[in-house]
Specification:
elongated; mainly alpha; 12% strand; three-stranded mixed sheet; two-stranded parallel ribbon; disordered N terminus
Length: 227
Amino acid sequence: MWFDGSLAGLSIWITYCVQVVFAYLTTLCICSFIQNPRTRVRMWGCFLSVTIAAWLLLWVPSRAAGPVHFVLSSSSLPPSSHLHLTLPVKTAWASYVANLAPTAWRVYVVLLLASLLHLLLKSLQLRSVLRRTQPPSPEMELVFRRLCLQLGIGHSELGLASEIRSPATCYWLRSHVLLPLELIPHLDRDQLADVLRHELTHVKQHDYLWDRLAALGCRLVFFHPLV
């Protein structure tokens, strides 16, 4: 099996494999002492970003002074002017690993496409829910607009949906706050304001955008145990 690329690319590949064990140990240790959930989320976000970046860097072509070959072989290589990295293994295992690499690549692509298709279907389902939302009452709309002004939110819409069971926020540039129809009769004016303020805080912090980016990143590195 040949690994064509630079020594830097090989180093990233090895580092990516080692960080699985390292991440388990450090995350378990650190999260045991940090009680702030926002801090833990930021830690996970940083780890996810580094993991995705390391994975994407594997696909960036790079050049070295000469070709670099990563070889699984049961015999020594002949003298050559090129650089070779050799791992001595049995002939049967070398053949098995060499045949496994293309299969693993195909499996990864198939699973990635399937997960992206699932994400697309969920997005279409959300659009369908939004098309069936009902407008709020004038009193409810007035409370919503006042809260938007207080939080400095310019573009946001409020809708009532029968398909959901809890308040939700979706989209980023033009956000939508959705309330369950069955919840409205059980809320007084102050409780309604608290629920809307909670959802509009998600809008202000762009939580839906970060959630979608995290969902996309998790699909790119779905094979990573900690992710």
